[in-house]
Design a protein that fits this description.
globular, Alpha-Beta Plaits, seven-stranded mixed β-sheet, 22% helix, alpha+beta, Metallo-beta-lactamase, Chain A, six-stranded mixed β-sheet
Length: 291
Amino acid sequence: MANVQLRLPENVPGDFFVDSTCIDCDTCSQLSPMVFRDHGEQCSVYHQPGTFEETRLAMMALVSCPTGSIGTTEKHDAHLGIDEFPLQLDDNVYFCGFTSESSFGAWSYLITRPDSEGGNILIDSPRFATQLTKRMAALGGISRMLLTHKDDIADHELFKERFDCARIMHADDGARRLGIEQVLEGQQPIELDHDLVAIPTPGHTRGHVVYLYRRKFLFTGDHLAWSLNRNTLTAFRSATWYSWGEQIESMKKLLDYDFEWVLPGHGDMYHVDVETMRRHLRSCIAWMETK
């Protein structure tokens, strides 16, 4: 719960505010960019909501904030934000919201599929929130949980207990130590089913994996994201815990695949046609090789 006594001075006066517990994960500025912005080391409100839509998005940011750093001075119905999640992005792919502090606010995603196609899939772990798990159960539960890397596993054990889902993760990120049910090994792509491929992408961590669904949606963890500043795809040099050189080589692997969506754990999402995406990927690789 945000504390108005800790309200950051960068907030404009008014109802919504961010307090000093903000960890600068940028969840709010991505969900509601017309209200929140990153002012440096933290986020703040630069424009108070003036319409129902702006208020709705600001409430979505409030309930998604991993540290509860967003507050209001007026009373709002929390369900205005809660009931939006999981949030449909495209087709049967959803953003879960309810980000977790233990994953530094990393985003997680839900794929809904009938049991005949293998059932629903959770990509990385959100916060284990009662409201979210109820919505997931109503959508058919979780059959499998795909973990991209060890940083963003959050409440994976609680989701395993709740939905009895099989977790998938690479051995090089400690999957066996965590008791993961399906352990990936090696550096070759692995077809998990006819619509889903696991692609090992060491770099950010040694056992990092991205997942490609329907040759359209690429769930990239902390490997690849969109940069608003550079207006192209990017990687995070300062947050590479294993090897920048390995990450460059891993990035080159992705040139062999078609995809239209980049859905990261950190950084901005991006959606464009396949050829434009490949052009941005080449640009990213060229930039990485200069760093």
